[in-house]
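Dear colleague,

As promised, here are the two records you asked about, laid out in our usual form so they can be pasted straight into your sheet.

NAME FIELD: protein one
SEQUENCE, THEN STRUCTURE:
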Amino acid sequence: MAETKPTAPAAATKSASSAHAQPKKSSNLIATIAPIACIVLGYVIWRFVLGNPAEFTNPDPKGGFWPNHQGPKGAFNKMYEGGIVVPVLIANFLVVVTFVIERILTISKAAGKGNNAEFIRKVQFHLANKDVEKAIAECDKQRGSVGNVMKSGLRKYKEMISNTELTTEQKVLNIQKEVEEATALELPMLQKNLVFLSTIASVATLLGLFGTVLGMIRSFSKLGDEGGGEAARELSKGISEALYNTALGIGTSAVAIIMYNVFTTRIDEITYGIDESGFTLTQSFAANYK
């Protein structure tokens, strides 16, 4: 009669691993609230700060949603006459600022403390001395994504040391799988909300050009209706006001592109550290526990 190997321990290991790999439930309220809040704040800034009646020589007494103030006293208030696209562009800029701050805080936390290369070297040293507990203690000190992934792998590493049911190759595969599952939980947190920066990077310039085109249409329309030297003066004034839209759009897009590239570069560094930590664990186990 053929001998059958017991499968209960392996099944238990798989069950425990699956339970550990359940994705963390995390709310992303900022992604819902921030864009709406920025749109409202953008309108408030345009309507009540840039469009402050006291800063115009001929304020519109009717007020309303879009007052027709004329004769801005300062250069800052000339942006008001750029039209209704201006508050949308201001909102875009505020969204960029909001998510830049949010990503800085999140990625700084994910980077942890100290240098990742130095941290991995310390873990390698402890594993070479077969001291898994000190290696886990290093992960607690690191407090970042690399440390979190390494700690998950080290727990499985420690479990596999005492496992007598599996071969060395199977144990290494289990450690590798644990690292991959831990990585799958960490990476979405790093990349979350970058879509706002990448989208605004391209959309802001188009919105600025759209606002400029609307301003040019309005200016040339006045030129056609009035004619004469006064109309030419109004045309040049209108073109100047319309170009504020372009300036806002290009400026917002530039900030979004720069910060997006900064964040993706930082995320790549953390991802490289995570990959190196997984390689370290599997190679160490294969070398020390043949």
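NAME FIELD: protein two
SEQUENCE, THEN STRUCTURE:
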Amino acid sequence: MRNYENYRDLIIVLTQKEMKVRYKNSVFGYFWSVGHPLALAFVYFVAFKVIMKIQMEDYSLFLIAGLFPWQWFATSVNASPVVFVGNASIIKKVNFPRSVIPLTTVLQDMIHFLLSIPVIVLFLFMYHKSPSLSWLYGIPLLLALQLLLTYGVSLAVSSVSLFFRDFERLINIFITFLFYFTPIFYPETMVPEEYRHLLYANPLTPLMISWRELFLTGHLEAASLLATLFYGVIAFVGGYLVYKKLSWKFAEVL
């Protein structure tokens, strides 16, 4: 029990540190967090709704509902290649589970995502909609699933990046590809049916669809939740195994 409390306190302290570092000397800290996905939503709205005339009602709301949870995943994974290097001084001085460091980065981005939900609520009201009571259990459930998936990927990426510094550039390219193969600015129904199964081979697809359905309709599909849980467990187990395989060499490269 004592170890659990120490572990919890360590996570809280490190997460607070990451938050302070991120917003140090930043006047518009919170607004930068929501500004990036809002800017992307504006670009895609102009490109696909105004210019290409995509036939979809409430397209702005559709974009916002997918871009905010995507931003959490993308920001955490893109930051993971440098989290161990950035905390080298702490790692060398204090003995604690190194796996906590990528977790605090993911938790920090999760907090930013939670703080962006009022923006989604505002857009709902703009389109004469309102939050559903299912948010009370749906949001915590999807938070847990995305945390599991994102942390697993981030743990693996941060561990490998210590030994292959070019991995950071590869991850940035990979995240860009993954974004366009995830139904965020387009519905999955636009993908030809014979290729739709390939879309669901993407671990982010069922998760992003679940977030969008929860925000827009208040519904959650069991199949998407189970698929997300499956991908999350695979990512977490895989990430932890990679970390355990490489962690004993961290001191040599930091």
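A couple of things worth noting about protein two: Residues 81 and 165 are 8 Å apart (CA to CA). Residues 28-253 form one domain.

Best,
R.
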